[in-house]
Amino acid sequence: MSTDASAAFQSLVKKIEQLKKGKSFDLSLEEDLSIAVMNLISLEEHFFFSAEKTGKDEYLDLLNQTREMRKVLFAKMIPVHEGE
Description:
This protein is mainly alpha-helical. Helix content is 81%, strand content 0%. The protein is built from 3 helices and no strands. The protein has helices at residues 3-21, 27-54, 57-77. Helix 2 packs antiparallel against helix 3. The chain is elongated and about 50 Å long. The protein starts with a helix and ends in a 7-residue tail after the last helix.
């Protein structure tokens, strides 16, 4: 992930944390977060199939970066979980 993208992602995570702590928590934020996670899952699938079709490892690198973003955002949605 590029430094700019990483900084932007970290900024987004900080904003989400601040909103959760504040009194003006917007419930639509949870909906937006779930849509973002769904889109990241779609990107993971796209990168996987692109890697298989082209044989280029760059797509697998993008898949792993996308997966890491999804894991962080998904953990924000479901902070306490048991099992997988």
